[in-house]
What does this fold into?
Amino acid sequence: MRIDQPLRTSAPLSRQQKNDASEPIVVIVDDDAAVREALSELILSAGLQPMSFASTREVLDADILDRPGCLILDVRMPGASGLHLQHHLAESGNAKPIIFLTGHGDIPMTVQAMKAGAVDFLTKPVRDQTLLDAVIAGIELDAARRANALVVRRNIERLETLTHREREILREVARGRLNKQIAFDLGISEVTVKLHRANVMRKMEAGSIGELIRAWETLPMAMREAGGAWF
It folds into this structure.
Protein backbone atom coordinates (compact mmCIF):
# COMPACT_ATOMS: atom_id res chain seq x y z
CA MET A 1 0.00 0.00 0.00
CA ARG A 2 1.23 3.47 -0.89
CA ILE A 3 -0.27 6.27 1.10
CA ASP A 4 -0.82 8.42 -1.98
CA GLN A 5 -3.45 5.96 -3.20
CA PRO A 6 -7.09 6.28 -2.02
CA LEU A 7 -8.35 3.41 0.12
CA ARG A 8 -11.68 2.36 1.58
CA THR A 9 -12.98 4.36 4.51
CA SER A 10 -11.34 3.41 7.83
CA ALA A 11 -13.41 1.50 10.37
CA PRO A 12 -15.12 3.82 12.83
CA LEU A 13 -13.60 4.04 16.29
CA SER A 14 -15.53 2.47 19.13
CA ARG A 15 -17.01 4.66 21.85
CA GLN A 16 -14.56 3.11 24.30
CA GLN A 17 -11.62 4.12 22.09
CA LYS A 18 -12.91 7.65 21.73
CA ASN A 19 -13.37 8.02 25.46
CA ASP A 20 -10.06 6.47 26.53
CA ALA A 21 -7.94 9.58 27.03
CA SER A 22 -4.91 7.50 27.98
CA GLU A 23 -4.84 5.66 24.62
CA PRO A 24 -2.14 7.05 22.27
CA ILE A 25 -3.58 8.62 19.14
CA VAL A 26 -1.97 9.45 15.82
CA VAL A 27 -3.31 12.81 14.68
CA ILE A 28 -3.28 13.14 10.88
CA VAL A 29 -3.55 16.62 9.37
CA ASP A 30 -3.70 16.76 5.57
CA ASP A 31 -6.00 18.63 3.20
CA ASP A 32 -6.09 15.64 0.80
CA ALA A 33 -8.98 13.32 1.75
CA ALA A 34 -7.43 10.35 -0.06
CA VAL A 35 -4.21 10.74 1.89
CA ARG A 36 -6.12 11.00 5.17
CA GLU A 37 -7.99 7.79 4.36
CA ALA A 38 -4.83 5.92 3.40
CA LEU A 39 -2.96 7.09 6.48
CA SER A 40 -5.84 6.19 8.78
CA GLU A 41 -5.99 2.72 7.22
CA LEU A 42 -2.26 2.23 7.72
CA ILE A 43 -2.36 3.41 11.34
CA LEU A 44 -5.33 1.14 12.10
CA SER A 45 -3.53 -1.81 10.51
CA ALA A 46 -0.71 -1.31 13.03
CA GLY A 47 -3.17 -1.47 15.93
CA LEU A 48 -3.01 2.26 16.62
CA GLN A 49 -5.79 4.85 16.85
CA PRO A 50 -5.90 7.55 14.13
CA MET A 51 -7.78 10.85 14.14
CA SER A 52 -7.72 12.82 10.90
CA PHE A 53 -8.30 16.50 10.12
CA ALA A 54 -8.28 18.56 6.95
CA SER A 55 -6.59 21.64 8.43
CA THR A 56 -4.57 22.87 11.38
CA ARG A 57 -7.57 24.96 12.50
CA GLU A 58 -9.71 21.81 12.72
CA VAL A 59 -7.21 20.01 14.92
CA LEU A 60 -6.80 23.03 17.21
CA ASP A 61 -10.58 23.35 17.56
CA ALA A 62 -10.84 19.64 18.40
CA ASP A 63 -8.87 20.17 21.61
CA ILE A 64 -7.17 16.78 21.49
CA LEU A 65 -3.49 17.81 21.39
CA ASP A 66 -2.95 17.06 25.07
CA ARG A 67 -3.71 13.38 24.42
CA PRO A 68 -0.75 10.94 24.29
CA GLY A 69 0.61 10.15 20.84
CA CYS A 70 2.07 12.02 17.88
CA LEU A 71 1.12 14.03 14.79
CA ILE A 72 1.54 13.43 11.07
CA LEU A 73 1.42 16.82 9.37
CA ASP A 74 1.38 17.94 5.78
CA VAL A 75 3.59 20.98 5.36
CA ARG A 76 1.61 23.02 2.87
CA MET A 77 -2.13 23.30 3.41
CA PRO A 78 -4.74 26.01 2.94
CA GLY A 79 -4.59 28.36 5.91
CA ALA A 80 -1.93 27.75 8.55
CA SER A 81 0.75 25.27 7.46
CA GLY A 82 2.09 22.30 9.36
CA LEU A 83 5.17 24.34 10.21
CA HIS A 84 2.92 27.02 11.70
CA LEU A 85 1.23 24.39 13.86
CA GLN A 86 4.62 23.12 15.01
CA HIS A 87 5.60 26.67 15.97
CA HIS A 88 2.29 27.22 17.78
CA LEU A 89 2.67 24.04 19.83
CA ALA A 90 6.26 24.92 20.75
CA GLU A 91 5.22 28.39 21.92
CA SER A 92 2.41 26.93 24.03
CA GLY A 93 4.79 24.47 25.71
CA ASN A 94 3.29 21.38 24.06
CA ALA A 95 6.30 19.42 22.78
CA LYS A 96 4.16 17.08 20.71
CA PRO A 97 6.23 14.72 18.51
CA ILE A 98 5.62 15.63 14.86
CA ILE A 99 6.26 13.71 11.65
CA PHE A 100 6.10 15.86 8.55
CA LEU A 101 4.85 14.18 5.40
CA THR A 102 4.82 16.25 2.23
CA GLY A 103 5.09 16.16 -1.51
CA HIS A 104 6.66 19.62 -1.59
CA GLY A 105 9.59 19.47 0.79
CA ASP A 106 12.94 21.12 0.30
CA ILE A 107 16.20 21.17 2.25
CA PRO A 108 15.68 24.52 4.06
CA MET A 109 12.16 23.45 5.07
CA THR A 110 13.47 20.10 6.31
CA VAL A 111 16.21 21.77 8.33
CA GLN A 112 13.73 24.21 9.85
CA ALA A 113 11.36 21.42 10.88
CA MET A 114 14.08 19.18 12.32
CA LYS A 115 15.71 22.01 14.25
CA ALA A 116 12.31 22.74 15.78
CA GLY A 117 12.13 19.16 17.06
CA ALA A 118 10.35 17.15 14.36
CA VAL A 119 10.73 13.38 14.66
CA ASP A 120 11.13 12.97 10.90
CA PHE A 121 10.53 14.74 7.59
CA LEU A 122 9.26 12.36 4.90
CA THR A 123 8.25 12.92 1.29
CA LYS A 124 5.30 11.36 -0.53
CA PRO A 125 5.07 8.60 -1.58
CA VAL A 126 6.64 6.94 1.46
CA ARG A 127 7.08 3.27 2.33
CA ASP A 128 4.55 2.07 4.87
CA GLN A 129 7.21 0.69 7.21
CA THR A 130 9.23 3.90 7.08
CA LEU A 131 6.21 5.90 8.18
CA LEU A 132 5.18 3.39 10.85
CA ASP A 133 8.72 3.38 12.25
CA ALA A 134 8.54 7.17 12.56
CA VAL A 135 5.11 6.96 14.21
CA ILE A 136 6.30 4.38 16.75
CA ALA A 137 9.35 6.55 17.49
CA GLY A 138 7.06 9.55 17.99
CA ILE A 139 4.75 7.67 20.36
CA GLU A 140 7.70 6.35 22.37
CA LEU A 141 9.19 9.84 22.57
CA ASP A 142 5.90 11.24 23.80
CA ALA A 143 5.59 8.48 26.41
CA ALA A 144 9.12 9.19 27.67
CA ARG A 145 8.44 12.92 27.90
CA ARG A 146 5.18 12.33 29.77
CA ALA A 147 6.86 9.94 32.19
CA ASN A 148 9.59 12.49 32.85
CA ALA A 149 7.03 15.26 33.35
CA LEU A 150 5.19 13.06 35.85
CA VAL A 151 8.40 12.53 37.84
CA VAL A 152 9.08 16.28 37.84
CA ARG A 153 5.54 17.10 39.03
CA ARG A 154 5.75 14.47 41.75
CA ASN A 155 9.10 15.82 43.01
CA ILE A 156 7.81 19.39 42.98
CA GLU A 157 4.80 18.31 45.03
CA ARG A 158 7.11 16.60 47.53
CA LEU A 159 9.36 19.64 47.57
CA GLU A 160 6.41 21.82 48.56
CA THR A 161 6.09 19.83 51.79
CA LEU A 162 9.59 20.89 52.93
CA THR A 163 10.17 23.77 55.31
CA HIS A 164 12.43 26.65 54.33
CA ARG A 165 15.29 25.18 56.37
CA GLU A 166 14.78 21.72 54.88
CA ARG A 167 14.98 23.18 51.38
CA GLU A 168 18.26 24.84 52.33
CA ILE A 169 19.58 21.50 53.61
CA LEU A 170 18.44 19.76 50.43
CA ARG A 171 20.28 22.24 48.24
CA GLU A 172 23.49 21.88 50.25
CA VAL A 173 23.31 18.09 50.26
CA ALA A 174 22.79 18.15 46.49
CA ARG A 175 25.93 20.29 46.21
CA GLY A 176 27.88 17.52 47.95
CA ARG A 177 28.40 19.39 51.20
CA LEU A 178 29.14 17.43 54.39
CA ASN A 179 26.94 17.76 57.48
CA LYS A 180 29.60 19.70 59.38
CA GLN A 181 30.08 22.09 56.45
CA ILE A 182 26.34 22.70 56.19
CA ALA A 183 26.13 23.23 59.95
CA PHE A 184 28.91 25.81 59.85
CA ASP A 185 27.47 27.67 56.84
CA LEU A 186 23.94 27.82 58.31
CA GLY A 187 25.03 28.49 61.89
CA ILE A 188 23.31 25.41 63.33
CA SER A 189 24.52 22.24 65.00
CA GLU A 190 25.52 19.14 63.08
CA VAL A 191 22.83 17.19 64.97
CA THR A 192 20.21 19.65 63.71
CA VAL A 193 21.49 19.21 60.17
CA LYS A 194 21.14 15.43 60.51
CA LEU A 195 17.56 15.79 61.74
CA HIS A 196 16.63 18.11 58.87
CA ARG A 197 18.30 15.81 56.36
CA ALA A 198 16.36 12.82 57.69
CA ASN A 199 13.12 14.80 57.28
CA VAL A 200 14.12 15.74 53.74
CA MET A 201 14.81 12.11 52.85
CA ARG A 202 11.45 11.05 54.25
CA LYS A 203 9.40 13.81 52.63
CA MET A 204 11.15 13.42 49.26
CA GLU A 205 10.69 9.63 49.55
CA ALA A 206 14.36 9.03 48.79
CA GLY A 207 15.95 5.79 49.92
CA SER A 208 19.50 7.06 49.53
CA ILE A 209 21.48 10.25 49.00
CA GLY A 210 21.85 9.22 45.38
CA GLU A 211 18.05 9.09 44.95
CA LEU A 212 17.74 12.44 46.69
CA ILE A 213 20.25 14.06 44.35
CA ARG A 214 18.54 12.55 41.29
CA ALA A 215 15.21 13.95 42.50
CA TRP A 216 16.85 17.35 42.98
CA GLU A 217 18.24 17.26 39.46
CA THR A 218 14.76 16.75 37.99
CA LEU A 219 13.58 20.07 39.43
CA PRO A 220 13.37 23.13 37.17
CA MET A 221 16.60 25.11 37.09
CA ALA A 222 14.92 28.20 38.57
CA MET A 223 13.97 26.23 41.68
CA ARG A 224 17.44 24.80 42.11
CA GLU A 225 19.11 28.16 41.70
CA ALA A 226 16.71 29.82 44.14
CA GLY A 227 17.55 27.27 46.82
CA GLY A 228 15.39 27.73 49.90
CA ALA A 229 13.76 30.97 48.73
CA TRP A 230 11.45 29.80 45.92
CA PHE A 231 8.26 29.91 47.95
Residues 128-159 form the longest helix (32 residues). The longest strand covers residues 25-29. Confidence is low (pLDDT under 50) at residues 1-19. The radius of gyration is 24 Å.
